[in-house]
Amino acid sequence: MLLLLLLLPFAASFIAACMPVGSRDRPAAVAGIATLAALALAIGQFDPIADGTVPEERYGWLPAYGLDISLRMDGLAWVFTVMVLGIGVLVLLYARYYMSRRDPVARFYAYMMAFMGAMLGVVLSGNLIQLVVFWELTSVTSFLLIGYWQERNDARRGARMAFTVTTIGGLCLLAGVLLLGHIAGSYELEAVLAAGNRIRAHDWYLPALVLVLLGALTKSAQFPFHFWLPHAMAAPTPVSAFLHSATMVKAGVFLLIRLWPALAGTEEWTWILGSAGVATLLLGSFFAIFQVDMKGLLAYSTISHLGLIVVLLSIGTPLSVVAAIFHTMNHAVFKASLFMAVGIVDHESGTRDMRQLRGLKRAMPHTAALAIVASAAMAGVPLMNGFLSKEMFFAETMIVGGTENWWMSVAAGLMGLFSVIYSLRFISVFFGPLAHDLPEDPHEPPRWMRVPIECLVLLCIAVGVLPERVVGDVLAVAAHAVLGPTMPEYSLAIWHGVNLPLLMSVIALAGGVIAYLVLRNWFELAQRDRVPVLHRLKGAQLYENIMLGLAQGAAWLLRWTGTRRLQPQLLVLVAAMVAVPLLLAQPVRDFAAPQLANANPLFALLWLIGAGCAVAAAWKAKYHRLAALALVGGTGLATSATFLWLSAPDLALTQLMVETVTTVLILLGLRWLPPRFPPKNLGPRIPPSAWLRRSRDALVAVAGGLGLAAASYAVLTSPQEGASAGLRDFFVQRALPEGGGANVVNVLLVDFRGFDTMGEITVLSAVALTVYALLRRFRPAPESVAIPVQQASDVDPAVGQKPGQQARNGYLMVQAVYLRFLLPVMGVIAVYFFMRGHNLPGGGFVAGLIFATALIVQYMVAGTDWVESHLRLRPHRWIGWGLAIACATGIGAWLLGYPFLTSHTAHVTLPLLGELHLPSAFVFDLGVFLVVVGTTMLILVALAHQSLRSRRTPPTATRAAALAAMPPPKEIQ
After folding, report:
1. What is the mean pLDDT of the chain?
2. Interatomic CA distance for residues 213 and 782, integer angstroms
3. Alpha carbon distance 522, 535 (integer Å)
């Protein structure tokens, strides 16, 4: 159930991403249905959790390292899950009416649902490493959401700033989690929480604490990392409402609450968190007063309220934890409603500038009433939910501070006073005469756009009037999950009599009203656009200066230590590859040296030919590319013959097909490169310095090759547990009984090393997409556009024909006819090699290359126009479906309780056919086949389309005319 709950948002994200960009209602419906279904699943778990049951699910992930996909939902996780999903579904409904028809709405919902899924992953994780993975995923998805309007500079800047700060904090969190796991002896959440005393007494407690707090404070925008949150206001208002209320910034708070039993209770915890929290709540509330943007005001108020929660957690008493959880819930409710109200004002009036807005109550009375009530909750007015948790905050600061540390109570009182001032500033736009110089005439929004705000405001009032009945059980369940047996007694009654917390609330309310009137009447608060005294405190500017300094430092370092030449870079890499293993390697025991006495001279000649081709290719590569490519092909053929000699037909066939495909693709690429001519004064004499450099490079290259060969031989011949000899026998003995196949090579690729193969096809897909993207913008040099000189002839009639015409009624007609008939034949051959691959030489990779070769031949004979008019290839979809099928195979093993990509074999008996051997690796191999075909065809299409683009350029009669118009060739040194 928990896995389904977690996967629903990601599934909705994938479906929305596959919809047309202009879709509006369908992605909203998919997102809403998925969120409602997940919310129903979560609500259904409350009764078991309230009875003390903690639902848990565990799936194999990295069993060799003791890591599993662990999901658990205790009371705290339940509250945050319902908060994320409940507010999420309201925000999704609101976004349906907020987003413009000109926006790519399907992409918006895809990002939102992925963001929601990442936050649920953080909340439900039962493993700290897994938590960090989802933690960083929230940073990635928030980057996409904040920068959604990518054409705006402020959106791009805010997205980069948020991503940089939060990901650096995420790296610190990862380091802290690794230390905690080392101290506790496990990364499982329950084990870490149970080892609190051991963690606090350990010598590494302080480094682990600082690293974890850095992760939490950066995510929750606490001082001095608070500056990124106001700049995130460039995001669409639905994103801001979701990010500020139930996700992203609440992830840091959740982490502090979650790890409170393991880390709290020390002076270091109190002083680090307390100092950051007090500074944040004061600075945030003070800066909020003087904002002119309504969203900016709410952003700084969020910073302040998060500081309040952090201060409560720093106090360290059980009751302060209860208050922190309570205020987290209350803040999510009133802050989401306020952001959506601001979005309505902006949507219907065209601006959020409080210097222009006034009298909106006359044009949109319902929205004004909702915003005023939500602002009262934010200010802590009695009978509102914010009043109860803020009184608990006042009470805790007084109890802990006492008469000695009274400064904490003063800070709490000032924060309460400031919150009243900025709340009054916020609602001032609804009073007074209606402004007539607005970009648009303000009016009420569509009915359903206002429904989410009405639901949240109603909840603010319900919790404020009937707190025990509305949230009493929920708060108790959440607090008990953190505190356990130390759960304190508390009351959620509205009236506790006349006491100091009540007096502080009255002073804050009255003082805030008086201070607002003074600022408005004597200091022109309505038109002030600069924060007094503290306006020079600009964290964003400091961030920009640091980033600029890092960029300049990196440029200086690159200028003095780096080079744009590929050869020196490879020299350093290969030299390091040789030197580092020699320094770190231990002596190899029982190393079986290869026996060369029985070496076959013919085999040695084969290797000599291959090595000679490689050296010659390097010699010719600078000025004779075609010859170099042919020589490289000779090296590949020698390698293929070597595999065949060593009884590896699978590898020989694969190498042969790889050589065929890559040779054709590289030839197509060479067609569009400008020619390189040797300088006129190039003679047989070479300077001694060049000989020394080349000798050094040759020596390093030979050492690197011999080193890799020796390492591979040592690994292959070293004894393995459970095998009579080396690694070879290990796989040979296990291929059939454990992998379900007699072809060891194929079983190795799709079963034993399936995760490696998954990574390889992912990299292959990324490379193909990169090549396609680069070639779409590539424009060949002018001297490469004209037809080659070999094809320029006044006599040959084929010169004036396109490839399609040549294949239809030209000199390629015969070849075209039988090669078209060859396409289905090669398709059948590809299917044959694919079907037999698990037990005989073949498999998805070879079959994909064979089928890709069949398609390449059609392009070569008939040309791009003819092929694409008869075949709808769509290589992007081949790649996508291939990766999806390969991933689905691994996920299927997860669902059955096995590690990712674990292979299973079924034996099915069918009439006439008899018993069929059906391994799950067959499906994975199908994904490999689709990816290989898709990537090959994508690169081929990208290269072939260069010829189509070249026809749009002014034609050149002959190659000689093109060469005559060229400038003199440059001498390349």
Report:
1. 85
2. 58
3. 20
| Whole-Å CA distances, 539 to 305, 309, 534 | 19, 22, 11
pTM: 0.76
- φ/ψ region of 350 (left if φ > 0, alpha if ψ in -120 to 50, else beta) reads left
Token pair in block for residue 336? 């989401």
Three-state secondary structure string covering 773-815? HHHHHCCCCHHHHCCCHHHCCCCCHHHHCCHHHHHHHCCCHHH
Q: Using CA atoms, how far apart are residues 316 and 837, in angstroms rounded to an integer?
A: 63
Angle, in degrees to the nearest 10, between helices 365-379 and 385-401: 20
The letter for the amino acid at 2 is L
Does residue 310 surpass a pLDDT of 90? yes
Residue range 457-479, pLDDT digits in tens: 999 999 999 999 999 999 999 99
- Are 279 and 534 in contact by the 8 Å Cβ rule? The answer is no
Among candidates 482, 398, 460, 418, which has minimal Cα distance to 280? 418
Distance CA 728, CA 718 (A): 10
pLDDT(723) > 80? no
Q: Of 148, 89, 90, 88, which is closest to residue 119 (Cα–Cα)?
A: 88
What is d(CA 284, CA 303) in angstroms, rounded to the nearest whole number?
5
- Helix, strand, coil percentages in the chain from 3-state DSSP, rounded to 5: 75, 5, 25
Element containing residue 292 per DSSP (H, E): none
Please report which confidence band the pLDDT of residue 973 belongs to, taking 50, 70 and 90 as the band edges.
Answer: very low
Q: Is 238 exposed, middle or buried (0-12, 13-18, 19+ CB in 10 A)?
A: buried
Q: What contacts 741, CB < 8 A, 6 or more positions away?
A: 735, 747, 751, 838, 839, 919, 921
How many alpha carbons lie under 13 Å from residue 826 in its C-beta half-sphere?
A: 19
Average pLDDT value for residue range 792-804: 64
pLDDT of 587 above 80: no
Amino acid letter, residue 284: G
Least confident stretch, 52-56, 395-399, 638-642: 395-399
120-134, 143-157, 583-597, 801-815, range with the lowest pLDDT: 583-597
In DSSP notation, 327-369 reads HHHHHHHHHHHHHHHHHHHHHHHS--BTTT---HHHH-HHHHH
Helix (H, G, I), strand (E, B) or coil at 916: strand
What 3-state DSSP class applies to 91?
Answer: helix
Overall average pLDDT of the 214-223 stretch: 94
Number of C-beta neighbours around residue 484 at 10 A: 11
CA distances from 75 to 51, 209, 263, 487, 492 (A): 10, 24, 19, 13, 18
Residues 6 or more apart whose CB falls under 8 angstroms from that of 850 comprise 657, 826, 829, 830, 833
Matching residue, tokens 């500020």? 244
Give the model's confidence band at 726: pLDDT under 50 very low, under 70 low, under 90 confident, else very high: low
Q: Average pLDDT of 687-695?
A: 82
One-letter amino acid of 67? L
Per-residue pLDDT reduced to its tens digit, 740-787: 777 788 788 887 888 888 889 999 999 999 998 888 877 776 766 666
The residue assigned the tokens 């126009």 is 865
Q: Which of 131, 161, 349 lies closest to 258, judged by CA?
A: 131
How many whole angstroms separate alpha carbon 859 and alpha carbon 804? 10
**Quick check: 156 and 150 in contact, CB under 8 A?**
yes
- Output the six-digit token pair for 239: 């994103």
Burial class (CB in 10 A: 0-12, 13-18, 19+), 162: buried
Rounded to a whole number of angstroms, the distance between the first and last alpha carbons of the chain is: 67
Q: State how far the Cα of 304 lies from the Cα of 300, in Å rounded to an integer.
A: 6
